[in-house]
Structure formats: C-alpha cells, structure tokens
C-alpha cells in the first residue's frame, strides 16, 4: 500500500506515512492537509474526526478519521515528541507535498 512506503525507521518517514495516511484514509485535499492543525482532530461520540475543516469553496465540514489513521498519526507524534496542541501535521517551515 502506498501509505506504507515511507521508511518508519526515520522520523521523516513516520511523518510522511502520517501525511499519506491522512490524505488517503480521510480523503483530504493537499491544501486542507497543509492547513490542518492538531486541534482539528477530536474525539466525537466515540470516534475520531477532523472537525471544523474549511474545505473547497470555504465549506466547513467534519471528516471521520479511521482508527488506523489515528494510530499512524500517534506514532509520529510520539516519536517526534511534539506538543499535539500546537503543531500541525505539515510543519510550516517545511515543504508539504509540493505546497
């Protein structure tokens, strides 16, 4: 599977795997991913979701997050030691998928 290609032995590989998992598992557009912050990721009614996501045309939507995607994100967050309240998946100082 495409999302499993990045090397998880490196921090960059874990981050790249998390990015691919969110794109493929949640169906986000590149721009939506680039603007995604961890505070968008919330547990609602026993399920993980990306809430208040401003998508194409300025529409606000809620996107379900499969458990496997949340696990991949958690692996990267734990390895990177980032504070999940303040860091976005695509770090502003880095190029995220050609953006």
Describe this structure in words.
The protein has 99 residues and is α+β, with helices and mostly antiparallel strands. The protein is built from three helices and three strands, in the order ααβββα. The protein has a three-stranded antiparallel beta sheet with strand order 1-2-3, with no helix packed on it. β1 and β2 (47-54) form a beta hairpin. The protein starts with 10 loop residues before the first helix and ends in a 19-residue tail after the last helix.
Describe this protein with a few key phrases.
3-stranded antiparallel beta sheet, 99 residues, alpha+beta
Give, in order, the helices and strands: HHEEEH
Task: State the low-pLDDT regions, or none.
Answer: 91-95
Alpha carbon gap, first and last residue: 23 Å
Please provide the count of β strands: 3
How is the largest sheet built, in terms of strand order? 1-2-3
What is the alpha-carbon Rg in Å? Answer: 13 Å
Give the percentage of residues in beta strands.
15-25%
Question: What helical percentage do the residues reach?
Answer: 25-40%
Structural class: alpha+beta
Number of separate helices: 3
Shape: globular
Describe this structure in a few short sentences.
This protein has about 100 residues and is α+β, with helices and mostly antiparallel strands.
């Amino acid at each position: 599977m495409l999302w499993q290609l990045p090397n998880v032995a490196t921090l960059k590989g874990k981050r790249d795997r998390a990015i691919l998992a969110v794109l493929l598992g949640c169906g986000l557009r590149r721009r939506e991913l680039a603007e995604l912050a961890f505070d968008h990721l919330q547990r609602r009614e026993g399920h993980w979701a990306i809430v208040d996501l401003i998508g194409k045309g300025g529409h606000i939507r809620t996107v379900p997050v499969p458990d496997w995607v949340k696990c991949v994100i958690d692996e990267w967050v734990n390895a990177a030691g980032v504070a999940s309240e303040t860091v976005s998946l695509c770090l502003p100082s880095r190029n995220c998928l050609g953006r």
